[in-house]
Input
Amino acid sequence: MSRFMFQGAKTKEISFPLGGIGTGCIGLSGNGRLIDWEIFNRPHKRSDNGYTHFAVKAESDGQVLDARILQGDLQPSYMGHHNQQVKRNIGYGFGPLETTLAGMPHFKDTVFTGEFPFAEMTFKDEQFPGDVTMRAFNPFIPLNDRDSSIPGAFFTIEVCNTSNRDITYTINLAMKNPQKEDKNVHSYNYADNIHSIKLGSEELREGDVRYGDMTMATDAEEASYQQYWYRGGWVDGLEVYWKDFASPGRFKNRVYEPAKCDNYGSLAAHVQLKPGERKSVRFVITWNYPNSDFIWPEVCDCNRTSCQHTAERAWKNYYASMFGNSEESAVYALNQWERLYSETAAFKNALFSSSLPPEAMDAVAANLATLKSPTCLRLSDGSFYGYEGCIWNEGSCPGSCTHVWNYAYALPFLFPKLERSMRDLDFTYNQCEDGRMSFRLATPVGRELWSFPHACVDGQFGGVIKAYRDWKISGDTQWLRSHWIAIKKSIEYAWADTNADKWDADRDGVIEGRQHHTLDMELVGPNAWLNGFYLAALKAGAEMAHHLGEPDTAASYMDLYRKGKRWTDKHLFNGEYYGQQVDLKDHALLERYGMTNYWNDEAKEIKYQMQDGCGIDQVIAQWHANLCGLGEIFDREQTKKALSSIYKYNFKNSMRNEVNPWRLYSLNDEGGAMICVWPDSARKPVVPLTYASETMHGFEYQAAAHMIQEGLVREGLDIVRSIRDRYDGEKRNPWNEMECGSHYARSMASYSLLLAFSGFEYDLTKGLLGFNPIEWTDSYQTFWSLDSGWGTFSVHGGEAVLRVEYGNLPLQHLHLPFLRARTVDGVTVNGEDCDMTCNDGLFTFAQKITIERGASLVIRID
Output
């Protein structure tokens, strides 16, 4: 069975998120249940929506042959729901919750296949005369953030008649109205060949944070429905519903007055199939809960006259500006289905056709699901906002945390406009006059900065690097110019007189002083990890300054960069790896920066430092530089040795004999790369760097991708494989990599594996695109995406083909250094010959051309 297929026990933990960017989502479980109803503007892990489910029945000659819930077996444990958040009197020790429907007839044999953004399930049972397949998705179309933000779950259910008789099949969607505490009302509508039932409330008003509705809809040719299930006590509703469904014929409608109680509705599609024939029907579940009451910090004491915060706590989701209610989004989804499906499938096929090792493709695709999870929000104007992750009922660590989102490389390439909106928010609302950046964005935007007193080194300078990257991805120099003053302030805060942390007060290109970072504490001595961010920001700043006509600024930044690089390579590399220069016995150092709480009085040394430890992020700045086209930050040979040392010391094939008092992201015989390790030759501080023994996936992915960039392919893949083997469907959910909460943003560092293997190069300011695969044969392909378009690049049968599948590509230079030794026989664009010069693998047009959607540039090679 492939890495993307799951069966039996391997389906236990699966919850595949179905929803739009910033809309919340519903989880499709490994056995076909609809779980994790996170559509009410907050996470809600381990939740269900009552008995909501799909079901199917087969009948012939007026008799029901069989009827089953469209689910597979519930996987153990059967002791009951032991999640402490379930506020019910039925829990652990009472068996599985009845809402699992495990006691109803269901299918014995199921297989779950997940290739994000598509999930597919097959259902078979010897008692059921037919094979059933469910395919589920939500549109995921790079660059099209609007259609990728539809609040809905899309389902196609196909039935194949495996019998020797004509059969009528009924596929039913039953759904609970979640607003039982309010008078809820169900309304059926049929228009433009769409059947729908909207589940709403009669008494809630538009400004209420609970206000909203859900819709189930189908465009099946034949349908029947029940606006309401039978109302009664105990499980009367389910009893009568199943009697109705499992009887011959179609549903007879039932109508009640609005009431505060559990209310369900059913919408069924009917298809007639001859032996061997197959047909499919489409359903959507859409939602519209427009009012979010999320404000961070929770209590607003803003006195700024420019604050946009009003007395109303609620703000409207972006999707509420797209659709007035859930019925509108359902109609849009069904009317646009063919296009939405085909464009999503085009992306999926292009991505999965990439010549990547299976574990790398698994890591790249699976973590894209984070963008459809409650980790991600869209503010009223469409701007992107993210938690770090999410816990069971709320976001984990809010504020689009700059140092965590540094690692997330999927969004800037797939939805670059949304990524730039994060820079817009940061540089507009998150910067002090002296350049200090708050690393968490307070909402509503426009209020006071978050009160944390210290800037974060990797977050501060990571923002500069990301601005450089986003400029190169978009080619939009006007956008860069609009933030240039803020970018310069960010860089120059390093030596500002107001910088109480004294990062580079002597302007020698080396960060010292108090250095807050993504491991939530502070270092107090020069180290390559954080100084690398400073060096990369200086180098990026120099290039941006030169482009914007500030040669003096560019020269001063480059001078600092060169000085700092020389010092770092000479003084922080110990022959094997880069460390931290600090005297742990220097109590006066702590007094200088007001950090006396870092003193370990018993051991007489400073706490939470690396000193001679081998840190997993020690050369992360070079990873960023490689991905952004910045060139060398550290000495290349020393960098490769450092990465070899990370593999040698930090990566463990088994965690069984490791000491880890921190969070357990790998355990027993699982492997992983630890945050910081002290080899036998190095003394480990008594109280070392925070999280040192954890194996956090985003850190692991960046180290692995960097190893692959530098030619350590086997080593990098060992780390990637160790992560994805933990997410096998039985122990953990393959579409929910955890760190400080579920769907952790940092794991989107896995997208860099695609960039590393393809040697992707880009600069739309120059019309430049390039590929230099780490490993390739004469049959090679990879996916690519930038601000204007996306597509594939392939080498096959004596041709190198650059194809645009969506949008367009302005191009003047195509850099293919791996073909420098090949003879070029000609170049065509969309079948027409064109002139290009070729010099050492760099193909150049006389002037910039634009390759349109559906067109290809073909280079014929010997």
